[in-house]
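Q: what sequence does this backbone want?
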């Protein structure tokens, strides 16, 4: 099947224009809570990207592992996670217990990893 590339580009652009939220709509729906939540999550994304850098440098370019930089980025990530938990009134222990329960369903109560269990994701069955 042959496609007209110009027509496809135009159709795709029209679809994107139809589906994206305008800046005006975003601002009209924004609240201080949403702005702060967005700021925290974007900050976390940035910090995780910064964490990836020394890992990539070590794994791909055989540079020494920069543990000091990794600790700095982990601290920034923990700061963001704590801010998010505080905003949502969620205690860290609750998250840890919930995650252990989820992974216990996935890998069994003895937490034995297997590729099959990772693929099957028993904790997601029935959702």
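A:
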């Amino acid at each position: 099947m042959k496609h007209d590339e110009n027509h496809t580009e135009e159709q795709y652009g029209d679809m994107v224009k139809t589906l994206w939220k305008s800046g005006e709509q975003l601002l009209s729906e924004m609240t201080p809570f949403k702005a702060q939540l967005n700021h925290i999550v974007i900050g976390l994304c940035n910090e995780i990207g910064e964490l990836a850098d020394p890992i990539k440098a070590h794994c791909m370019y055989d540079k020494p592992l920069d543990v000091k930089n990794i600790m700095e980025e982990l601290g920034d990530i923990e700061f963001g996670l704590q801010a998010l938990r505080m905003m949502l009134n969620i205690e860290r222990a609750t998250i840890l217990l919930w995650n252990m329960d989820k992974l216990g369903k996935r890998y069994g109560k003895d937490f034995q990893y297997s590729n099959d269990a990772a693929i099957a994701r028993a904790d997601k069955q029935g959702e």
